[in-house]
Specification:
Elements lengths: L3 E3 L7 E3 L36 E9 L6 E13 L2 E12 L8 E13 L3 E15 L8 H4 L19 E18 L15 E20 L2 E9 L5 E8 L10 E20 L9 E15 L4 H4 L3 E18 L3 E13 L5 E13 L2 E14 L3 H4 E3 L4 E3 L5 E12 L4 E11 L2 E5 L7 E5 L3 E15 L2 E12 L10 E2 L1
Length: about 475
């Protein structure tokens, strides 16, 4: 696609420009701006190779005082043809172009896999550590628009005297295993069961811990163009405060939030014929999640203990997928939460891909449909901190999406369109005067979104021209803001 809109530098937060590529995090949404860097159960890498593999990369850029660094090292090795392990470590960050904007993003994934003919297991440990200084943004638009600074560090920011900082910590352990029961005779010539009818019975467990600690001290800033005198000249105003509220301590903040999630699943996959059949796989499973939320509430500083809230949710899911030779791929899926913390949540999805050939070149037409009803995140309804406090009762969001795309890979051509409708959208917005008086709001109607995307790459001799354009429209830019044109 057209990429992300970042805060500015490597390691800092960002959001995909395309609304339909933005992550929908229910669990610890505070970390969602770092989605590009974070390892989790869904993207932890596994390798299978004949030889040990070691790769190390170091890149730095910019002047020493603003330097961005990117260090990566990974090692993968097979113990046997069916058993492997790997270690991936990445450290990315910046000292910051602007004052008080240093960021350090460290991520590690350790994985082990065994894929036998009948028994397979994939397990891993993930650690994400993010440190980011918060400067509160530019004092005023004039500092960028109407003036010239020799260095970016001269641009005045609002929180530099407060030394505000966020530290995110994450540990996760996961294990998924399955055992295959063939439904037909297996011979020594069958290296796997992929081409045979079989039933797979499995279990998956994941334990995930996220925490965020925000610290600052009381500080003020000066606005060099805070007002005008009787002659129309700008006059500096001092003593501006970024935060309007100090609920716990009037001089300093140390707010820690913690979220733990234990997820268990039992699943069955039936392979009636083989994975390339009209009905390739039929999946089904049940599971439960245990959520534990911890935060410091008013009065807890007397006991010195954090307040904990535990919630349990139960779910069931199923899917079916298949192929018709090399011309059709299709699948459908459903997940429901019949009871518990997220009782009533549901998601439906379907996908169809048609492939044809013109003079040996593949033409791919795809369509997707999804509908999701989801509960608000815990922190959207419950928060107590030094600067922000809210206790909300929010309705479930309901979102429907339709996507269509056409691709000609050999000619680097791609056209796509998305249409979405969101009901009861939850968002952050102003709840009073001042830049810091924001809170969680919910739109009580529908918001419609439309995206059109085109990609075409050209090559003229040794010159490559890669072109991507995205057009987007939102019927309510306050609730769901999207850029009209991204290229």
């Amino acid at each position: 696609g057209v990429g992300d809109a970042p805060i500015g530098a490597l390691g800092q937060g960002s959001v995909p420009l395309n609304y339909f590529e933005r992550p929908q995090w229910q669990d610890f949404s505070f970390a969602s701006p770092f989605h590009s860097y974070i390892y989790d159960m869904r993207n932890a890498p596994f390798y299978n190779g004949k030889r040990p593999f070691l790769q190390m990369t170091y890149i730095e850029s910019g002047q020493k005082r603003y330097r961005e660094t990117n260090f990566e090292i990974r090692h993968a090795q097979n113990i046997s043809p069916s058993t492997s392990f790997s270690i991936d470590y990445k450290s990315r960050g910046t000292r910051g172009l602007y004052e008080w904007s240093r960021t350090k993003n460290q991520n590690i994934a350790v994985t082990v896999a065994h894929t036998g003919k009948r028994y397979s297991v994939h397990a891993g440990y993930v650690n994400n550590h993010i440190e980011t200084q918060e400067n509160g943004g530019v004092v005023g638009e004039w500092a960028i628009r109407d003036t010239v600074f020799e260095m970016p560090s001269g641009v005045p920011m609002r929180l530099t005297n407060a030394k505000a900082e966020n530290i995110y910590r994450n540990h996760a352990f996961f294990l998924t295993q399955s055992y295959a029961i063939p439904l037909q005779r297996v011979t020594e010539n069958d290296f796997s069961l992929a081409d045979l009818s079989a039933v797979f019975i499995g279990h998956s467990i994941e334990y995930d811990i996220w925490s965020k600690t925000y610290t600052d001290i009381f500080g003020t800033y000066t606005d060099e163009r805070g007002s005008k005198d009787e002659n129309g000249n700008f006059v500096a105003t001092e003593g501006h405060e970024y935060y309007d509220n100090w609920f716990i301590h009037p001089d300093a903040s140390r707010d820690t939030l913690c979220e733990r999630r234990l997820s268990n699943r039992l699943f069955v996959q039936a392979q009636p014929w083989d994975r390339n059949g009209v009905i390739g796989t039929i999946d089904g499973g049940v599971g439960f999640d245990i959520h534990t939320y911890s935060q410091f509430a008013l009065g807890d500083y007397i006991t010195g203990k954090y307040r904990r809230t535990r919630k349990t949710s139960y779910f069931a899911y199923g899917s079916i997928a298949g192929k018709i030779k090399k011309y059709v791929d299709w699948d459908a899926n459903m997940k429901v939460y019949p009871s518990g913390y997220r009782g009533g949540d549901m998601s439906l999805g379907a996908h169809l891909a048609l492939k044809g050939y013109l003079r040996g070149h593949a033409l791919i037409l795809e369509g997707r449909f999804s509908n999701e009803k989801r509960s608000p995140g815990y922190w959207q309804e419950n928060l107590f901190s030094n600067h922000y406090v809210w206790s909300n009762s929010l309705a479930k969001e309901n979102e429907t999406r339709i996507e269509a795309s056409f691709r000609v890979p050999d000619y680097a051509l791609e056209l796509a369109a998305w249409q979405g409708v969101v009901k009861n959208k939850i968002y952050y917005g102003p709840v009073g005067p001042g830049d810091s008086n924001v809170g969680v709001l919910q739109h009580d109607g529908n918001v419609s979104l439309t995206s059109l995307y085109a990609r075409k790459d050209f090559r003229i001799g040794g010159l490559h021209l890669d072109n991507r354009v995205l057009l987007q429209w939102s019927t309510n830019q306050e609730v769901i803001p999207v850029p009209l044109v991204s290229a």
